[in-house]
Write a structure and sequence with these properties.
globular; Alpha-Beta Plaits; about 40% helix; about 140 residues
């Protein structure tokens, strides 16, 4: 199922996992050509999907840095080497969070929740993999 947001089950699972260990979130991102907002006023601005996602990032990334997290990697997906077209993404972003507790505090903050409208408007879909570093 192509989506931009976690399900209730997925949110519950992250709250039931070790809250104190650091983890990486691997983001596979597919942008919309033109952002689609719920608000006509936001749509009138005429942002691309990438531009709308950048608006979301203006809130999300400072919050990540402020909690002690970091951007591990950000790059474009230049060439799909293996997989079918449904697995074709525009960007790959890896973010390291200091803990799931810190991630959930950020996720539930008012500022972050308000910024989500830009992510939803800008993305066709995304896949996130919560990952524990092995080394």
């Amino acid at each position: 199922m192509a989506t931009t947001e976690p399900t209730e089950t997925q949110l519950r699972e992250i709250t039931e996992t070790d809250q104190e260990s650091s983890f990486d979130m691997i983001n596979l991102i597919k942008y919309r050509p033109i952002a689609i907002y719920e608000s006509a006023a936001d749509n009138a601005i005429g942002r691309s999907g990438r531009e709308a996602y950048q608006e979301y990032g203006l809130v999300a990334f400072p919050k990540i840095i402020g909690m002690g997290g970091s951007l591990v990697y950000k790059g474009t997906c230049d060439h799909q080497f293996v997989g079918d077209e449904s697995q074709n993404y525009d960007d790959l972003i890896i973010v390291r969070y200091p803990s799931r507790r810190a991630y959930l505090e950020m996720f539930n903050s008012t500022e972050y929740q308000e910024a989500i409208k830009h992510r939803k408007a800008g993305l066709e879909y995304r896949v996130l993999h919560e990952s524990t570093p092995l080394a």
